[in-house]
Amino acid sequence: MTPPPARSRRTAARGGTPAHSLPRRGTVRRAQAITTYGVGSLIAVDQESFIVSGLDEADQSWNADESPQISERRLARLLGVDHFRLPPASDDASKDGLRVRRFPLMHSCPECNELQQHGNFNPPAGRSVCGTCDVDLVPSRFIVACEAGHLGEFPYWQWVHRSPDRGSTTIGKCGGTLMLRSSGRTSSLRSILVSCTCGQAPEVSMEGSFRRNALGDLGLKCRGSRPWLGTSTPVQGCALSLRTLQRGSSSVWQPVLKSALSIPPWSSRREDPLDGHWEKLRKYDDRAAVAIYLDAVFDDEWPVSLDEVMALLAAEREEDPDGEATPTFDHRYRALRNKEYERLRSGNDESERSRGEQFVCETPLGGQSVLDPLGVTGPMLVKKLREVRALKAFTRLIDAESTTDSTEMPLSERPLRWLPAMEVWGEGVFLRLDEERLDAWEKATAVAARVERLRTAHQRVLEQRAVDPSRVTPSPATPRMVLLHTLAHVLIDEWSLEAGYPAASLRERLYAADDMAGVLVYTATSDSAGSLGGLVAQGEPDRLDRSVRSAVHRAEWCSADPFCVESEASGTGGTNLAACHACVMLPETSCEHNNILLDRALLIGTPEDPSIGFFHEALQP
User: Fold this and answer.
1) Average pLDDT, whole number, for the chain?
2) 128 touches 94 (CB < 8 A)
3) Element (H, E) at 336
4) pLDDT exceeds cutoff 60 at 78
5) I want to staple 605 with a disulfide (CB 3.0 to 4.6 A). Which of 386, 497, 585, 610 is the partner?
6) pLDDT value at residue 163
């Protein structure tokens, strides 16, 4: 059968579809500018490919003046910035929007098969078509990246002109033109053929280009290219090994996201008039010095009382990690979570809050003794919460959860005093597990051995993906962490069925450490899904008892059993055990740990050893 001709963009103009009914090209949701299409990521628009520009002042990815400002003091202090800004939400009256650059520059023409840089095709202004054939150009499927976050074009010239033993290369202008075609025999890399019209090298396939040392064998090292910062940015030598990637691979860009809940005393927003002054105020230890500073800054009446300022400064110092002379980022982030856990336990009643309070957390009215057989305690109804999620940096080839500062690529060449962020308003249910019962359960030999398999597999994956394995952050897998994580997943599944919430609109927030054993399930979208009290109602003890029992009972059976529950390892690198998409896995937006470190056997046990299930005894008839 004769293949259809290559599509030309002129066809759409001739067709019967009115131009005004077509969707706007290149539109993305505001949240996607943080999670999917952030700075340094690749974005496809029609048949074209672009990279989102950096946030440098000379060429910002969006207009900071038009981007609304977000304040979240706890998170801003952790990340070393003054404030955050929402991603652009451009409309017909706004000039705002994500700035992008064309990447990769290498394109091919499906008609004449030439492979060269986009500008060499002489396309008409504003179009990406071959100037000779008038058909859409195809961006290169292949790019290269290193573990330090640099990104570059695939070296087609070196790949074609390599020597037969893959040693030295004939690099330079040979007078020929690169050609790319597909043999059509298979869909594998073997069918993608690259050649040069110079005749000095045979036609070669792309097979083998994804080997870890494929480009290193050609003597190629990373040159430190950062195309999202523009051609004016000086290229710094990197010399790390290059890896070949497909343009749409998830390894090309992974966001490093950090989040915080707005909790008292910061959630009242009383401190907003002092934004920009906190770093200086922290230098003063006594009331008199703070009062002198406020007098010098504010000519009229102080916008915040001295008592409130001192209380806010004391609250900041309480979040500093104890016993750490120079605390690491991880220690400081853990201290931030510890304060959230304490506040979720203690609550913040609606009757005590001010009008602008952003955190309302109350104890349920019903008796909580009904939850005792389950080992669940301390449920709290979070009637109002605000979460801020900030894009700190991004990584390539490395899991964002195992990053260090040296492997994170910043969003700009120069330090910024703000970062892109999203704020989410919603509600949730917080619950804890009984510490005495949990301590006895996690000390069981069978439980510890099962989780150790998960921890070892996860640690191995982290080390394999790291530039320096000796500096890898230890795996967070512990018995209570895996138990709480899996419990959160089955509860989200249960409430998505029972209460009518889309699973993607709910999110987990885990508090798992030696002194913490809680989980918060809350609405995770910026729209109205679940913001009218429906989720809070699930936290009443009677309903929560039914929900936990039903969720755990549902986890006793999976359509992939017995293979699933008897699995020795599942997921990427064996980082799950009894967990699959048919039982406990969730949409990526709902999970803090990318659907790893899950094991429903810790909830209900295994056929051979039911006792390893935390809820096994409570669910017996």
Assistant:
1) 83
2) no
3) helix 329-346
4) yes
5) 610
6) 63
Burial class (CB in 10 A: 0-12, 13-18, 19+), 119: exposed
Round to whole Å and give the CA distance between 569 and 461: 13
Residue 388: strand pairing partners: 260, 423
Q: CA 242 to CA 392: how far, in whole Å?
A: 24
Calpha distance 431→345 (Å, rounded): 9
Side chain identity at 11, as an amino acid letter? T
Burial class of residue 26 in the structure, from the number of CB atoms within 10 Å of its CB (0-12 exposed, 13-18 middle, 19+ buried):
middle
Q: pLDDT tens across 315-327, in order?
A: 777 777 665 556 7
Q: Give the per-residue pLDDT at 3.
A: 40
What is the Cα–Cα distance from 196 to 170, expressed in whole angstroms? 12
Q: Which amino acid is at 174?
A: C
**Are 145 and 151 in contact, with CB atoms under 8 Å apart?**
yes
Q: What are 106's strand-pairing partners?
A: 117
Contacts for 310 with CB less than 8 Å, ≥ 6 apart: 287, 290
Mean pLDDT within 417-441: 93
The residue with tokens 């520059």 is 105
Confidence (pLDDT) at 138 = 94
**Strands lying side by side in the sheet with 100-102:** 42-45, 48-52, 100-102
Q: What is the pLDDT of residue 363?
A: 94
Any bridge partners for residue 429, and if so which?
Answer: 381, 521
ω into residue 321 within 30 of 0, thus cis? Answer: no
**What SS3 string covers 347-368?**
CECHHHCCCCCCCEEECCCCCC
pLDDT of residue 15: 37
Instruction: Report the amino acid identity of residue 102.
Output: R
Average pLDDT of span 382-389: 92
> 400 versus 461: which is more confidently predicted?
461
- The crossing angle, in degrees rounded to 10, of helices 445-465 and 479-498 is 90
- pLDDT at residue 558 in the model: 93
Q: Residue 56 has which token pair?
A: 């440098």
**From CA 43, how far away is CA 51, in angstroms rounded?**
6
Cα–Cα dist 584/555, whole Å: 8
* Cis amide leading into 303 (omega within 30): no
Band of residue 233 on the pLDDT scale cut at 50, 70, 90: low
The first and second tokens of residue 364, run together, are 């349920």
DSSP conformation letters of 425-479 = EEEEEEEEE-HHHHHHHHTSHHHHHHHHHHHHHHHHHHHHH-SSGGGPPPP---H
CA dist., res. 459 & res. 453, Å (int)? 10
Q: Which two tokens stand for residue 110?
A: 């499906």
Distance CA 19, CA 28 (A): 20
Residue 527 pLDDT: 54
What's residue 326's pLDDT? 65
* Model confidence pLDDT, tens digit, residues 146-157: 888 899 999 999
502, pLDDT greater than 80? yes
pLDDT reported for residue 104: 94
The H-or-E segment that residue 381 falls in is strand 376-395
* pLDDT level of residue 380 (50, 70, 90 thresholds): very high
Nearest-CA neighbor of 161 among 178, 142, 136? 178
Sheet containing 142-145: which strands, arranged edge to edge? Answer: 151-153, 142-145, 243-246
